[in-house]
Amino acid sequence: GVEAIAALGARVGRVMLTLGPDGALYGGRGRDTVKVPAATCDPIDVTGAGDTVISTLAAALAAGEDLGKVP
Question: Does residue 51 have an active-site annotation?
């Protein structure tokens, strides 16, 4: 996880690796890798969940959000 983010981040800048119910890892070039916890819920259908996470991340970055503030 962390090693993969560091290696890929050195090439592309920012990386998010989704981990299903374990949340996600976010990091990249010049950044510490942080673990983002998953919300606790009782899912009915997880189809497309990872796509939703990544598209929300892209929208936040495009809006200028500072992801360094992710808890």
Answer: yes
**Residues 29-60: tens digit of each pLDDT:** 888 888 888 888 888 888 888 888 889 888 98
Tell me the C-alpha distance between 47 and 22, whole Å. Answer: 16
DSSP classification of residue 67: G
DSSP for 4-69 reads HHHHHHHHHSEEEEE-GGG-EEEEETTEEEEEEPPPP---S--TTHHHHHHHHHHHHHHTT--GGG
Predicted confidence band at 63 (pLDDT cuts at 50, 70, 90)?
very high
**How far is residue 36's CA from residue 50's CA, in Å, rounded to a whole number?**
13
**Active-site entry in 22, 45, 51, 66:** 51
